[in-house]
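Ticket #4471: structure output looks truncated?

Reporter: J.K.
Steps to reproduce: submitted the chain below (289 residues) through the standard prediction queue, then opened the result file.
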Amino acid sequence: MSNAYRVTVSERPQAVLRVPPHNWLSEGDSATLSCEVEGSATGWRFLWYRVDSTVKHTLLHRNDGSYSLSPAAIKHTGLYVCRAERGEPAYYTKYSRPQPLWITGSSPAASVVISPNRSQHFTYSTFSLSCDVQDNSSGWRLRWFTGREWLECPSSWSSEMGHTCTISYPYTSDSGVYWCQSDSRATSLAINVTVHDGDVILESPAQPVIEGNPLTLRCMHRSEPTSLSADFYKDGLRLQTQSTGHMTIPAVSKIHEGLYHCRSPDRGTSPKSWVSVSIFLSDIFMKLF
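Returned output as attached by the reporter:
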C-alpha cells in the first residue's frame, strides 16, 4: 500500500471588478476600472470584457489589473466584466459581477427635465421626464439605460404632447440614467434617477448645481408629507443632525462633491446620491446611486 496523500478541492476564486463610485461619465472624461482576485494578490493576469444585449462577452484587453478609458466616448457605454488567469495551461477565475458604465455626450440644444424635480423617487409614485429642446428642432426622444438594457420612450411609458414621458407606477427597475437624443445622435447631459422601494429617500435636485449656488437636501418619508428629523452623511461620515429634516450648504464648491445620504433613526436610510459641482454650466452634472 502506498503512502496516503491529502487532496483539497477549493472553490474557483472570484474576480471582483471595481468602477468609479458614480459609474456615470460625460464624453471626454477619464475613467479607470480595476480588477482583483478575492483572497489572492499575486501571479494573475487580467482579462477585460464588455457584455452586449445577447450576453456575448467581447474581449477588450489583457493586462495587470486596470483598464483605462481616456477619453471616454459614448461607444464605451455598456456592461463590463473581468476575470483572471495564471499558469500554463491557463487556470481561470470566475467572471466578476457585471458592472455598468454610462457615458453620454452633451448638446446645448436639449436638456432633461424631471418632475417632481428630484433624483430619488418612491416606487408607485408618479414622475415624468421631458426633453427641453431650445431651438425647437425635431427628432428628439428620451432614452435611458437601466444597467442591463437601453430603452426609449414611449415603450411601456405613456408619451404625452411634446417630449414628455410619464410613468405612473414606477418600480425599482425603472432606476437608471436618462438623457435626450436626436436622430442625428446628438445627446444632452444625462440625469440619474433612483426608484426606491424603502420608506426614506434623500430629496436632492436632479439638475446640476453650479459652484457658488446653495444646495438643499431633505430627508423624506413615504407616508408623511413633512420632512423627517434626520442625520445627513457625506462619503459615509455624518455631517449634521437636523430636526427640521433638511440641511443647506449656502455656497457649494468642489470640496462638497461626494456621496450623500440621510438616515432617520425611526424610519430608515435613504439611497446614496453622488453630487458633482462645476464652475461652468455646460460642464456640470449630477451623478447619483
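Triage note (M.O.): checked the attachment and the full C-alpha cell line is present. The CA atoms of residues 110 and 133 lie 4 Å apart.
Status: closed, working as intended.
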